[in-house]
Amino acid sequence: MEAHKRSTGAMSEQRRARLRLEISREAARLFWDKGVAATSGDQIAAAVGLSTRTIWRHFRSKESCAEPIVMQGVVTLLGVLRRWPRRRSLEDHLTAELTGIRNGDTTPPVDLADELLAMRMIRLADTEPALRAAWLMACDQVEREMCVIVGERLGRPVDDLEIRLYGASAASAVRVLDEHIGAVVLAAGEDFTEFSDVPALARRYAEAIRTATGGAIGDPLDDLIG
Amino acid sequence: MEAHKRSTGAMSEQRRARLRLEISREAARLFWDKGVAATSGDQIAAAVGLSTRTIWRHFRSKESCAEPIVMQGVVTLLGVLRRWPRRRSLEDHLTAELTGIRNGDTTPPVDLADELLAMRMIRLADTEPALRAAWLMACDQVEREMCVIVGERLGRPVDDLEIRLYGASAASAVRVLDEHIGAVVLAAGEDFTEFSDVPALARRYAEAIRTATGGAIGDPLDDLIG
DNA sequence: GACAGTATGTCACTAAGTGACACCCACCAC
DNA sequence: GTGGTGGGTGTCACTTAGTGACATACTGTC
């Protein structure tokens, strides 16, 4: 019973995530083409071939349909951070993992088209307050995850005030970098080449996180802690 | 004509702000008493004695009605930061200004009841996603202001990437502190005494901002810059 | 092949939010 | 005084985001 529950639960969770992403893609496309206000729930539903009611079962609001597309990249980064070994510097770990991903030997093949769509949504958020709210809500989730990661690394509880400060600052640093990179890529006619230097990119993220946490997060730990 | 426009503009802007605050108070009261979902726009309008249509003229959404109440305190802090002299440490400036405010010799008498209401709204945001979104949107505005302040202090443009990183980290540090203090006060039965030590409070804010900016913001400047 | 649980469709309904228009009131010119 | 002019407000009709309730189809288990 336990095992059964767990297995079907996991299955449907994957299915659910895939479907949400699919809906998100169509919604993002529509948002970009016609604007958020001019895109109705019915149109999103039609575009993905579902009933409108089902859309609202998977998303709380129209704007939150953009969330999965926008979160893909960030989720990947969080995964990378979660695998960060204690006795390694953040710079080293990020460069290693990110080049690894580009070479395809690690998990998720975040589609280039999806990344572009994500950047467009973040760009749209500049002029569409509702989208901005959705983006910030997504980043809020990231912040919580970040607190877990930081707390674990420093061996402190997640609700510790200092941990929450670190988590929040680190998360917003990542957010700002994402916004900046997205803006630059879009301004350059959707050309990624400026950021093809993966180690440099990794260094920027690492440095930002290190600075935002006042140096508390970034260095290798000589691991006196269990 | 110019002068006239300007004066009436300023007048109506003040009036508008006062009215928004008034609406916000009633909305916050209702949100806290009955929950956000159970509070309708009509009820807010009735509570403040306006037509529902007028509510929507002053607020984009139901949840954003909470914004002015919640922002009062933060706006005050931003004002204090804007007056921060270059050759003074953040700790010194904050303690001086905040004790000054408490003593009433500086600008805004942020009502205690309003502060309490604000804390309640932030607390409610834990369980009401729509309120959380509104709160994050408000903090997003704070972040922009923070970038201006930081940029001016460091003599760099506001859209400079590093400035934006500092601004974002500082703003989220302030946000986390606000959330924490609010939570503690509410948990203590709405008792502020734990935070009556104003210098200690100021030191906490200053230290948080200093850490979040990797030490770039906080020290006095020996002002080689014009 | 019957069964249980879950995802979906359909339809009726609530309420958030907008547009259009009339009104009122304060200020200004004459 | 009368007659504008403009900004804020009320009224009402309307759109549409989002929910509840119920029926149905799908998926895997025994």
Question: If you had to describe this structure to a student in words, what would you say it looks like?
Answer:
Two copies of one chain form a homodimer. By secondary structure, chain A is an all-alpha fold. The first copy, chain A, has a domain at 66-212: Tetracycline Repressor, domain 2 (Orthogonal Bundle), CATH 1.10.357. Chain A has nine helices and no strands. In chain A, helix 8 (161-187) runs antiparallel to helix 9. Chain A is globular. In chain A, 37% of the residues are buried. Residues 1-7 of chain A have low confidence and may be disordered. Chain A binds chain B through residues 60, 129, 132-134, 136-137, 139-140, 143, 161, 164-165, 168-169, 171-173, 175-177, 180, 208, 210-216, and chain B through 60, 129, 132-134, 136-137, 140, 143, 161, 164-165, 168-169, 171-173, 175-177, 180, 208, 210-216. The structure holds a DNA duplex (30 and 30 nucleotides).
Descriptive tags:
mainly alpha; 70% helix; DNA-binding; 226 residues; 9 helices; globular; homodimer; Tetracycline Repressor, domain 2
Tally the beta strands of chain A.
Answer: 0
Based on CA inertia axes, which overall geometry of chain A fits?
Answer: globular
Structural class of chain A: mainly alpha
Tell me the distance between the termini of chain A: 35 Å
Most extensive interface, chain pair and sizes: A-B, 30 and 29 residues
- Mean of residue pLDDT values of chain A: 90
The value of Rg of chain A in angstroms is 19 Å
Low-confidence spans of chain A: pLDDT under 50, at least 5 residues? 1-7
- Give the quaternary arrangement of the chains: homodimer
Number of helices of chain A: 9
Strand residues, percent of chain A = under 5%
**Helical residue percent of chain A?**
55-70%
